[in-house]
Amino acid sequence: MIETGIDLLKLAGSSDNNDLRFFKEKWGDKITFLGGISTKIAQINKEQIESHIAEVMEIGCQGGHFMPRTESGIPVMEPDKARFFIDTLAHYRKEYGTLEGK
User: Fold this and answer.
1) Domain boundaries, given as residue ranges, for the chain
2) Which of 10, 57, 60, 67 has the highest local Cβ count within 10 Å?
3) DSSP for 36-66?
4) H-helix or E-strand spanning residue 26
5) Of 49-53, 71-75, 92-96, which has the strongest mean pLDDT?
6) Is 33 helix (H, G, I), strand (E, B) or coil?
7) What secondary structure letter does DSSP report for 69?
8) The model's pTM
9) pLDDT at residue 86, as a whole number
10) Phi and psi for 68 in degrees, rounded to 5?
11) Checking phi first, is residue 101 left (phi over 0); if not, alpha (psi -120 to 50) or beta?
12) Quick one: pLDDT at residue 100?
């Protein structure tokens, strides 16, 4: 696909058994990946959400070419957990330079 000129791939995440680290190491310098965050975040606690986001951002942001996103948008969850997810993702996006000045 990369040889055909595709420069962005919506990568299904860990809940689909995809390995972000493998994709980044193999093609991360040739294509931008969108995704990486499991849709199962609605089923885990806040500490696990933060740990998951931190790991995804550490792997995905190496060398650039990465936009974090859940596999299918923000899953249905309690409002306070959804706010925590959004705020945590914004924190790590800013930390890794994917959310400049915001």
Assistant:
1) 2-95
2) 60
3) EE-GGGGGS-HHHHHHHHHHHHHHHTTTS-E
4) helix 20-27
5) 49-53
6) strand
7) E
8) 0.84
9) 94
10) -70, 140
11) left
12) 52
